[in-house]
Design a protein that fits this description.
heterodimer, A: about 550 residues, mainly alpha, 3-stranded antiparallel sheet, 18 helices, 3 strands, B: about 400 residues
Chain lengths: ~550, ~400
């Protein structure tokens, strides 16, 4: 592979590239051209540069699988194609662009910045779900993108009160690409959503110029919030119902604004459905928040102590972030399950997500089997790029985990500090009371009041640290796990491919032998088997 | 224990008037007797203080001299005051606390053991921190000892004590040994008896309103100061923990930042820098709080204990006096040993009155001192916190500006 990576991309960006690599490999399988691989690398390189802004967001978007394109022609209306030569030939379409929503919803409130998740007009043309990726221009236009939006949540201080500074991609900019022209024979069955996490407004301007379509006028926003946790039921059968409110102007939904009640197991059910559908073709499905038996039991039992309130709040914000990430992904948004989840008022109870159910145990067994498999499969990593990416990912994972633990300790200590300050404030007040020298007594009481205020501040800071920073980090740690899962999937499919090939080989040999031995009936049988095996091989290749 | 053949008994009729009590706990005395600790050396498990005296008093051989003393000798001096009946009517300045380096020694050891697991920078940083901490503790203990000496020197009566002079002047080893086990046990029992007695004595209603009021006040105050002191200690410890966490996060961010050179990583580096600086400020805030607030409270904890002891002694004297009165009456009624009873009653009466008088003055002084000390320290604390907060704010704002500018 002849690509040079000017600046080392950060691992998150690499996810995008990883997935796009996958897509390209498939494409390659179809088109049979090695050059596309190179091309793709260049493209992905560019993306990486572009995407280097916000690691977090990239990960959420990253998946793209290039399916076989029907006619393999990229609509000429993608001037982008011009900058990415051969794309047209590759019939590469797709690519989504999303604003990175890297901030926690809470910070949205804090920041005044618009956090608009924009999506492509998915409805622009039924047959062209996704517009071609604009990344091409991005690559050409910006080689050293300034991360206009950096996950400001990184800093716990008020520095990043405006944690969300996303540049919302205006639909008009993307419209052109997508446009509803019937002519572009965009027939990608699965859009390749290569996400550009962070795009410079400047770049957008230029994109606009380059693409001379007129804006469609639609806006692609979808805004989800999870609120109002309510306890439904009593005793051990109780559960928390969360209200999921969706505000959107996308036409795939029936209404503009609607809300439904969902419970935690519904979310888990959604996730498992999505995972089973998409994981093996290489998408990164955002991970759902984890089940916590202890926490839920406390809530069920009905203890009204602050820790259970905190738990509910934590879960609520985690669910919100999860949903946002899921809908940001263009493919996943298209999925009927997701839509059903958001819209329908009654959802079939996802029983299989219960902790102690048969399905749960099956899952555990599967996980164990996977782990064993991982150790035994020794994939011959022909793609050095992948290898490097994997390595980077490992590093990033490690670092993020470490950071996460440090931040958790910080949060813990701060909470302690606030508690102690409160205690001291009370004690100082009492001291002031018992002091009979009036001035000193007053002074001490004032000290007590100040300390109380300080305590409040510390508490707020601790909460901010927690929700903005620590939770985000844990989300990303889990996302990285999901990414690794995709890597593993890739390995599995490679393995399957190898196996299928080997089988095919054997069958061919058997057939040759039979031909020699001139056993016509067996020959026929062998031929049939071969015929069966071949498509298997090609399918596996595709999947890889 | 050393004995010197100097004239016995302090002189009650002191010609030196009570100089204005200094507003801070470290009292500045008049030029006749100035004591300070000019140097201190920390050896493996003990600290050697160099006590430096400047005096114009006639009973010292020279005008300026220095001796080396250890902690035990301070304690000896304090105990000799306490045991001296003559000083029953005075608040004895509380003894300085033992220099306690155990905590930082432990940490140093842990650091040494964990050396392999940390990166070089982390190690050096932690070592520096530990050294700074050690130094801070060291300075504090020196200050405590100095305060004790100065208080004694400033007290018009106590400064005349022989043992004090011996302590200041005798430039060879005082051969004060720490109490051995037997003596410690004795002490323990004495304490138990004393506290039981104290309860009894406290139950006796005092004739004098002033003392009654003082008694209740002191009791309450002492408890509250104890509470406040403990809570402030906890608070300061948490504060230190938070600032240490900053350090760790900064280090991790730094490693994250150095992995790549993309913008996010530059961002990380900036944040890491910021965190380090904030950490320093936070640590200093914690240290200042410690110094101004916690130490103040601790000192007054001990002082109020000493004041309580004074009241106890007075109460004891009162009880003795009343007992002597009763005995006298009994003797008179029985017409036996009247003279003996009378003399003992006289003695008790005198003792009691003496104690009451000096105690009154002492307690008033205690209050003044306390108010002044609190005022000074609280004001300084507030000013320092303000300064640090401003510095912190500036730092954050500039960092925010830089980051925004880059975006």
């Amino acid at each position: 592979m002849t690509y040079e990576r000017g600046s080392s991309c950060d691992a998150c960006a690499s996810v995008t590239a990883a997935l796009s690599s996958l897509a390209w490999l498939m494409l390659q399988a179809v088109a049979g051209g090695g050059r596309f691989r190179c091309l793709h690398s260049v493209v992905s390189l560019g993306w990486l540069l572009v995407a280097s802004g916000v690691p977090w967001s990239i990960v959420t978007r990253a998946t793209a699988v290039a399916r076989v394109l029907g006619d393999g022609s990229l609509p000429a209306l993608y001037p982008a194609a011009a900058t990415a030569p051969d794309w047209t030939q590759a019939g590469w379409t797709g690519g989504g662009r999303f604003t990175a929503r890297s901030a926690h919803t809470a910070s949205n409130a804090a920041s005044g910045d618009p956090v608009v998740v924009e999506r492509r007009p998915l409805r622009s043309s039924p047959s062209s779900p996704e517009p071609a990726s604009l990344h091409a221009e991005d690559i050409s236009t910006s080689n050293g993108p300034k991360p206009a939006e950096i996950s400001l949540e990184d800093d716990r201080e008020d520095l990043f009160a405006e944690a969300t500074e996303e540049v919302s991609l205006d639909s008009p900019e993307r419209e052109p690409i997508l446009s509803d022209e019937p002519s572009p024979a965009i027939t990608p069955v699965t859009p390749t959503a290569l996400v550009t996490p962070r795009i410079d407004p400047v770049m957008f301007e230029r994109c606009k110029e380059e693409l001379e379509e007129e804006a469609n006028g639609d806006s692609f926003d979808i805004d989800i919030s999870v609120s109002d946790p309510e306890k439904v039921g009593e005793g051990m059968n109780a559960y928390m119902a969360y209200k999921v409110t969706t505000k959107t102007s996308l036409s795939i939904f029936n209404k503009k604004e609607f809300s439904v009640k969902r419970r935690f197991s519904d979310f888990l059910g959604l996730h498992s459905k999505l995972a089973s559908k998409y994981m093996h073709i290489g998408y990164i499905v955002p991970p759902a928040p984890e089940k916590s038996i202890v926490g839920m039991t406390k809530v069920k039992v009905g203890k009204e102590d602050p820790s259970s309130a905190e738990f509910v709040e934590k879960r609520r914000s985690a669910l919100e972030r999860y949903l946002e990430r899921t809908v940001k992904h263009p493919t996943l948004l298209q999925d009927p399950d997701v839509q059903q989840f958001l819209e329908s008022s009654e959802l079939p109870r996802a029983v299989s997500t219960q902790a102690l159910s048969g399905a749960g145990i099956l899952r555990m067994v599967n996980k164990a089997a996977d782990a064993v498999n991982k150790m035994t499969i020794k994939m011959n990593e022909s793609d050095a790029w992948f290898e490097e990416k994997q390595q980077q990912f490992e590093n990033l994972d490690q670092q993020l985990r470490k950071l996460h633990t440090s931040v958790e300790t910080l949060v813990c200590h701060r909470k302690e500090l606030s508690v102690n300050t409160a205690a001291f404030a009370k004690s100082a007040a009492m001291l002031g009371n018992s002091e009979d020298h009036t001035a000193l007594s007053r002074a001490l009481s004032q000290l007590a009041e100040v300390e109380e205020k300080i305590d409040q501040l510390h508490q707020e800071q601790a909460y901010a640290d927690f929700y903005l920073f620590s939770e985000l980090l844990s989300d990303y740690v889990r996302l990285i796990t999901a990414v690794k899962g995709v890597f593993d999937q890739r390995m599995k499919t490679w393995q399957k491919w190898q196996d299928a090939q080997a089988m095919l080989q054997k069958k061919l040999e058997a057939e040759a032998k039979l031909q020699y031995a001139n056993k016509p009936d067996k020959l026929q049988q062998a031929k049939d088997e071969i015929r069966e095996a071949s498509p298997g091989v090609s399918v596996c290749k595709d999947e890889k | 224990m050393m004995q010197e053949g100097l004239d016995d008994g302090p002189d009650f009729l002191s010609e030196e008037d009570r100089g204005p009590r200094a507003v801070n706990v470290d009292l500045q005395t008049d030029a006749t007797l100035q004591v300070d600790i000019s140097d201190a050396l920390s050896e493996r498990d003990k600290v050697k203080f160099t006590v430096h005296t400047k005096s114009t008093l006639p009973n010292f051989k020279q005008n300026e001299f220095s001796v080396v003393r250890q902690h035990e000798e301070f304690i000896w001096l304090h105990d000799s005051f306490v045991d001296n009946e003559e000083y029953a009517g005075y608040i004895i300045p509380p003894a300085p606390p033992r220099p306690d380096f155990d905590a930082s020694r432990e940490k140093l050891q842990k650091l040494g053991e964990g050396e392999g697991s940390m990166t070089k920078e982390e190690f050096t940083k932690m070592k520096q921190e530990l050294e700074a901490e050690y130094l801070a503790i060291f300075k504090k203990t020196v200050a405590m000892h100095e305060v004790f000496l100065c208080r004694v020197a400033a007290h018009p009566i106590l400064r005349k004590d022989i043992n004090f002079h011996v302590f200041l002047e005798y430039n060879q080893d005082l051969s004060v040994r720490g109490k051995n086990k037997k003596e410690k046990l004795e002490d323990f029992f004495k304490n138990v008896v004393k506290s039981a007695d104290g309860v009894l004595v406290a139950g006796v209603k005092d004739v004098d309103d002033f003392f009654e009021h003082e008694k209740t006040f002191l009791l309450e105050y002492h408890n509250r100061v104890k509470d406040a002191s403990a809570k402030s200690d906890k608070m300061i410890r948490s504060h230190k923990n938070v600032s240490e966490d900053f350090n760790r996060i900064a280090a991790t961010l730094y490693t994250l930042g150095t992995q790549d050179s993309t913008d996010v990583c530059k961002f990380f580096l900036k944040i890491s820098e910021l965190l380090e600086k904030t950490r320093k400020i936070e640590a200093r805030v914690a240290a200042d709080e410690d110094l101004k607030l916690a130490d103040l409270l601790k000192y007054y904890l001990r002082e109020s204990q000493a004041a309580k002891d004074l009241l106890y002694r007075r109460g004891r004297a009162l009880v003795d006096y009343e007992n002597a009165n009763k005995a006298l009456d009994k003797a008179r009624s029985k017409s036996k040993d009247v003279l003996l009873a009378e003399t003992s009653q006289q003695v008790c009466c005198q003792k009691f009155e003496r104690i009451s008088e000096s105690a009154k003055q002492e307690l008033i002084d205690f209050k003044t001192r306390r108010v002044a000390a609190f005022r000074k320290n609280l004001v300084e604390l507030a000013e320092l916190e303000l300064k640090h907060a401003k510095g912190n704010l500036q730092l954050l704002q500039s960092c925010l500006g830089v980051l925004k500018g880059e975006l």
